[in-house]
Automatic annotation (TrEMBL):
The keyword Nuclease does not apply. Gene3D superfamilies: NAD(P)-binding Rossmann-like Domain. The lineage of its organism: Bacteria, Pseudomonadati, Pseudomonadota, Betaproteobacteria, Rhodocyclales. It is found in: Membrane. This is TIGR03013 family PEP-CTERM/XrtA system glycosyltransferase. PANTHER family: COLANIC BIOSYNTHESIS UDP-GLUCOSE LIPID CARRIER TRANSFERASE, UNDECAPRENYL-PHOSPHATE N-ACETYLGALACTOSAMINYL 1-PHOSPHATE TRANSFERASE-RELATED. One of its GO terms (molecular function) is phosphotransferase activity, for other substituted phosphate groups. It holds the Pfam family Bac_transf. GO terms for cellular component: membrane. It is a multi-pass membrane protein. Residues 272-455 form the Bacterial sugar transferase domain.
Length: 461
């Protein structure tokens, strides 16, 4: 895993993006070489623009999920992913053509050839079973512990996105420890922890234990390993890196206080606010026809009102009124009792089911963003009734209120629709990751992921 702007990205993914960008760059240069006479001056002008074009297009497709490991396991999903990437890449590519200094020497046929090459590279990446970089940056992992937490670590590392991390064994923390992993993979070594790590050529050690006192964790030996250049991670840091979440069951208040992240400041707030205003205005202009059509469909099926306003909890616990397109019947809560909204809620109208699926119902929240109650990206705002309940039942739930709630969020693009306390716990773990690591880069990643979710139906509301 590589950490880019506080966000973890699989190292193999970065290598794949770079490899495909280089492939597209070379292909563009070949096209220009075959159709134009490239003198020294022309080469000096074409090379940087061709490189910028290749990198931009591959980053765009990466953000749209083309390189998302484990996504699109069957032919239909893979085809949809490739078609979506090509459909969005082509107009962007032509937009870049207008910006780059190619117009002086590039004719239409040349641009068409470049677009065809782009489509070829995208299709090859989508359908070909290649593991560029697999085995090159593989890190050997030893897990301290053999119990349930060790099993959770092993399960997390079986995901294709973590193929560069290989578990070489489980080191028992002490005699009599519960063994829930494969006994054949338990490390039995006559010597200390450092000797065992050196024998197995370990790069990282994951401490899969929650108990911190009573000598269960070999702190002195772990320190020796760290001094020898072996990276040591606790459960919280491990799950943050490989799952993009901060696990509640392995979280301690001291980790929140003394660990990195959770930084706030006027500079970050100002940049985020400017980003919110500019992007919201652009989205409102682009979405106006869709919003008008959605309003007409709601009125035709179930009458007025088109919108509904509901009290939600925002930054610092402050209450505000959120505005959305009405997707449920007018008598959805006629008894006055708040209920969780479920994925197949029978209170949802036919039009409502469609606009919820493609997230059109969320568009009026852009006005909340302009007003300053919400941000484009952030934790989903909840109703006060549920916030009170969840704050009592879930540790650290209130931490999510130290940033503005969002129209979309890291939890929304990483976890399915939530309709229970257990779902709220899972989504909170992603919210905590966002609160800890939120940057403009992560906001951009979430927005692109949202586009992917809307276009493919992958994920949930």
């Amino acid at each position: 895993m590589l950490k880019l702007f506080n966000h973890y990205v699989p190292s193999n993914t970065v290598l794949q993006v770079l490899f495909d960008a280089l492939l597209l760059f070379v292909a563009v240069m070949v096209v220009f070489g075959l159709q134009s006479r490239l003198d020294a001056g022309l080469v000096a002008e074409v090379v940087p623009s061709a490189l910028a074009f290749a990198v931009t297009m591959m980053i765009l497709n990466g953000a749209l999920g083309l390189y998302r490991t484990g996504f699109g396991g069957n032919f239909r999903d893979t085809l949809m992913r490739v078609v979506m990437s090509i459909a969005l890449s082509i107009p962007v590519a032509y937009g870049i053509f207008r910006v780059l200094p190619w117009g002086e020497f590039a004719h239409d046929a040349m641009e068409i050839n470049v677009v065809v090459l782009l489509g070829f590279v995208v299709a090859v990446r989508g359908f070909a079973v290649r593991r560029v970089g697999a085995g090159v940056l593989v890190k050997r992992i030893m897990v301290i512990g053999t119990g349930a937490d060790a099993v959770a670590v092993e399960h997390a590392l079986t995901h294709p996105a973590n193929s560069s991390l290989q578990v070489v064994g489980f080191y028992p923390a002490g005699p009599g420890e519960d063994v829930r992993v494969d006994p054949k993979r338990v490390v039995h070594f006559d010597g200390n922890l450092l000797a065992a790590a050196n024998h197995l050529r370990v790069d990282e050690i994951i401490v899969a234990l929650k108990e911190r006192r009573g000598g269960v964790i070999p702190l002195r030996e772990l320190l020796d390993c760290k001094m020898a250049g072996i990276k040591v991670l606790d459960l919280s840091s491990f799950f943050e890196r490989v799952r993009g979440q901060v696990r509640i069951d392995s979280l301690r208040a001291s980790w929140l206080i003394y660990g990195e992240g959770f930084r706030q400041g006027w500079g970050r707030t100002l940049v985020k606010r400017v980003f919110d205003i500019v992007v919201s205005l652009i989205l409102l202009v682009l979405a106006t026809p869709v919003m008008i059509l959605a309003a007409l469909m709601i009125v035709i099926e179930d009458g007025a009102p088109v919108f509904y306003r509901q009290e939600r909890v925002g930054l610092g616990g402050r209450l505000f009124k959120v505005t959305k397109f009405r997707s449920m019947r007018r008598d959805a809560e006629r008894d006055g009792k708040p209920r969780w909204a479920a994925a197949n809620d029978d209170r949802v109208t036919r039009v409502g089911r469609f606009i919820r699926k493609v997230r059109i119902d969320e568009l009026p929240q852009l006005f909340n963003v302009l007003k300053g109650d919400m941000s484009l990206v952030g934790p989903r705002p909840e109703r006060p009734f549920f916030v009170d309940q969840l704050t009592r039942d879930i540790p650290f739930y209130a931490v999510r209120h130290c940033v503005k709630p969002g129209v979309t969020g890291w939890a929304q693009v990483r976890y399915q629709y939530g309709s229970s306390v257990d779902d709220a716990i899972n989504k909170l773990q992603y919210d905590l990751y966002y609160v800890k690591n939120h940057t403009l880069f992560l906001d951009t990643v979430v927005l692109f992921e949202t586009v992917r979710v809307v276009l493919t139906g992958d994920g949930a509301h």
